[in-house]
Amino acid sequence: MEQISILEGRQKQIFEKKKGVPQADIACDTSSLSGSVSQRACVFCGSRVVLYPVADAIHLVHGPIGCAAYTWDIRGAVSSGPELHRLSFSTDLQEMDVIYGGEKKLYHSLIELIEQYKPKAAFIYSTCIVGLIGDDIDAVCKKVAKETGIPVLPVHSEGFKGTKKDGYKAACHALMKLIGTGSTEEISKYSINILGEFNLAGEAWIIRKYYEKMGIEVVATLTGDGRIDAVRRAHGATLNVVQCSGSMTWLAKEMEEKYGIPYIRVSYFGIEDMSKSLYDVAKYFPDRPDIMEAAKQVVSEEVKTLYPSLQKFKKALTGKKAAIYVGGAFKTFSLIKALRSIGMSVVLAGSQTGDKNDYARLKEMCDEGTVIVDDSNPVELSKFILEKEADLLIGGVKERPIAFKLGIGFCDHNHERKIPLAGFEGMYNFALEVYQSVMSPVWQFAPRKGGTL
Ligand code: SF4
């Protein structure tokens, strides 16, 4: 049994909050350390997760089949209509294409797909190999767009050229080309776009319902249950409301600069942040006090239903400890508050794409002794989970085996999940899932590992 050590070169991305000890800023926004087996996805995957929920577009991965397989049906993002997004198309580049170039293959694939599926637009993702062989995907997209009359948008997301965040930006670039091309007639002055909400298990519908009850028009949701025509008229909204800030702040800033639409950051996880999201939007329209009144009404009705059941979970979970490792740091803030509301503390908090401001806020929010990590790996996560004796890990599909191997509970809070965790009803689902996993009798058959390996 020995202590797990930290890889040389990783120390600056790990921080433990200690009283009275002067502590440097956490290093972040940097490429993953070679050989560290980062939990973070590549640039291509970053762009794929952002654009995936646009359900009436063709998503064609220009690259070897592995890239498409890796991101096939990557989110639990549901659609109220077409489901083209759930098909993963690939040009399946082979050795001969690498030698002679894949442009012809891309062109023919696009023509065939557009003819067969009649999409509203097509997104073409560049992968590592395409970056290496230098295919001119812009030229092919332009040619196909001219011939077919639909937008054909290149997404420059070669996997190796940065971090997952660069993929978010590549996706936003593609969206920016669509925004501003539709009519804004008949859009209300009291309108918003919901940015960074991906309709996992129908979450965008839950959030939309709250705003609509307040009398707010939702012009477009980017990209949950997304439609090309809605994206095209998004520049007609009065306010951008950004949830997943890591993926969509860049787009919000661009829209502010180009169309003068201001943006606010919100979170739909937990009672506190969900309520604040409604109030913050209502505050933006001070000439309509009825919007604020309606927001208060929504919050009071929802909390009245939710509160008693949360008390039941709190009774069982008080004193239990959680580790959080998710994509964006903004979600971590809400999770800390949500866990506290059901009696749990957080001993490890980390993200794949947090920036300096996010980590500064995280340091402020966390309790003494909490470990904060940027762009972590399975060995580090295991080490801190063991040392801090966490009872639960909150993460995504790649973190699930870590929790189960260590004999602790797990809650999937990533984009693959099939249960809505946003909104007030999402808070109930979250508390239920945490309770069921932490208190499960299965742990007597797979006992928790000790403080060392
Ligand atoms: S783009 Fe590159 S890093 Fe990403 S899945 Fe494809 S080969 Fe792997």
Automatic annotation (TrEMBL):
Sorted alphabetically, the keyword list is: Nitrogen fixation, Oxidoreductase
The UniProt entry, under PROSITE patterns, shows: NITROGENASE_1_1, NITROGENASE_1_2
Name the Gene Ontology molecular function terms of this record.
nitrogenase activity
- State the Gene Ontology BP annotations: protein-containing complex assembly
Q: In which pathway does it act?
A: Cofactor biosynthesis; Fe-Mo cofactor biosynthesis
Pfam families, from UniProt? Oxidored_nitro (PF00148)
Q: Give the matching SUPFAM superfamilies.
A: Helical backbone' metal receptor
- Name the domain of life: Bacteria
Domain (Nitrogenase/oxidoreductase component) ranges: 42-438
Which family is this sequence assigned to?
Belongs to the NifD/NifK/NifE/NifN family.
Report the function annotation for this chain: This protein may play a role in the biosynthesis of the prosthetic group of nitrogenase (FeMo cofactor).
Name-wise, this protein is Nitrogenase iron-molybdenum cofactor biosynthesis protein NifE
